[in-house]
Amino acid sequence: MKKYNTDEKNGLDYTLVNGVYLPNLISTETNYEIGVWGLRYYDYIKEHRPAFCTSLKVQCKLNSHLHEVDVRAKEMYDTLITQLAKKQGITERLKADNQMLWVQKMTNIANQARELVYNDVICSKGGV
User: I want to staple 62 with a disulfide (CB 3.0 to 4.6 A). Which of 4, 19, 56, 94 is the partner?
Assistant: First the structure.
């Protein structure tokens, strides 16, 4: 028996060990750093879409997928903050004149943006 063998059907390489061919499994998973949005998305799919989460793990695509969702959600969040602040007339002038009012308004905007991103990216098929 040959020491190494390749299965033409699935394309996997095998090594003979103690009379048994074992697959040569090498993780091709990337090692991106995952931010808060990626972690929230992971928690969501782990609880609500466990088969999809397992599929990503088996295919060594979980980290890269979480990274993509994280980047998309962060960009959406930052854009929403800017747009909502501009739409509501929140400026640096307001920040200089009345810091407490500025903080209240920006906190409100951050909460709105967080909820929109969570609903549009994390909890919907948009994350997929």
Answer: 56
